[in-house]
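hey so u asked for the seq, here:
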Amino acid sequence: MNEAWISLDAAERRKNWRAGSYLTAVCAGVALAVTLSTDSSPFWWVFSILCAWIVSMAYVINRGYGRSLLTRDGIVVFNGFLGKRSIPWGDVTNIEKRHHTARSSSWWDLRLTRMSGRPLTIPGAFTSSRYDPKFEAKYVLLCQYWRQSTG
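ran it, structure tokens below
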């Protein structure tokens, strides 16, 4: 089999940046409200909000620009600007779709489980739609590579 990439397309990345924009607006609004409502120095509150925003934006960027390369021998996971990891197909024991629910949203991603029992979320495979054909195609492609390498 040839190599194949799993990543978000331009429209999915724009949607991801929109979520990051909402997060930025909420954090800026909270920081402004804290600054205007307190009598003493709001430095620690604003600093805490800034730290939470930085961590959250790192997650948004890694989610949007992370990708995975499927090869005959294994999967190479590129986590945005955090580096890469290579996992042979023989170390993979399960691939599953996971559903997450938060207060006002839900999303799906793909996760593989390794022989050591440690899970790994696959970058580039993420959706907020219940039935997303692009997400389903990524899942089928990942399972196809895994099955062909092990059987």
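Residues 24 and 53 are 7 Å apart (CA to CA). The beta strands are 4-6, 67-70, 74-78, 84-88, 92-101, 106-114, 119-127.
lmk if thats what u needed
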